[in-house]
Design a protein that fits this description.
Bound molecules: zinc ion
Structural class: alpha/beta
CATH class: Alpha Beta
Number of helices: 13
Distance between the termini: 44 Å
CATH topology: Rossmann fold
Shape: globular
Number of strands: 8
CATH superfamily: HUPs
Amino acid sequence: MKCVVCGLRDAVVMQKHTGRALCRECFISDVISRVEKEIMRFRMFSDSDRLMIAASGGKDSYVLLDIILRLHDPSKIGVVTIVEGIEGYNRLEDVEKVRKLANVNGVDVLVLNLKNYVGYSLTELVNLGFSKNVKISPCTFCGVLRRKAINEIARDLGFTKVLTAHNLDDEVQTIIMNILRGDLFRLVQILPNGPILSKFFVRKVKPLRKIYEEEVAIYAHLIGYEFQTTDCPYLRHFPSLRAKIREYLYKIEKEKPGTLLNLIERIDSLSSMYVNHYVNYPELPRCVMCGEPTAYGRNYCMACELLTALGISNPSYNRNNYLRLAPS
Ligand SMILES: [Zn+2]
Ligand SMILES: [Zn+2]
């Protein structure tokens, strides 16, 4: 079968939500142009921005880096990755793939070990939690500390935007979770031009937010990314609300392809009507322990609160203790 777009080359991909059979080249350019359109629509960044790509090392961040390298000046791109230190889950091989792609294009990769940042690896924190009977999921620790470190490093180094590799599936799961919680503010915050309530936050944007996870996987495969099926071991043990929603959305999408894309478009239009509502909100207060911003009405940030709950008094954060993997 020939590609329905160019009519020249053989189709190798069936794009489910459009029902189109596409060749390698037309599929890749379709994904890139949709990402570019989303970047322009929300003015996620402009030519003068310095972009810090937060990379987990998985296929999503590899694809994000590949696309951004095609759309932005490489001398204004950096990559940061946080190595959590989870027993039996070695991410260094994944980081190595991202490093190669980055370095070939003259881009630095900064690697920060959680152990060097807070003095404990994620596994050590989780075990500390077990011993103290603290009922906080490993994903919470991991997410909170990673976000904090990435924001601090990007700000220190003068990056003006942080790019994360969340895809359409991730974004819709987050939307459903916020709807279930009845949290309108967080729903509006999901918009790439949503409110930022502290000058200490570097704006985070998700250029892949309209690309299905399956499409990201196909793209990764087509550009030669070799998969390695290592899932975080903590995910299995702590089935979250997110995992249940993911399962459910997957079924709906399978029955009616395009559902997730339609939903996010509708929610985007709806949330856009509320964006201006938050412009005059006051600056967020700062954590009395570490000085970073925290939510209204709070004295401590999530990170300081979580670490204190584990019995780590006066937590300190060493964000300068990272490794710089530069092009040779
Ligand atoms: Zn084609
Ligand atoms: Zn704090």
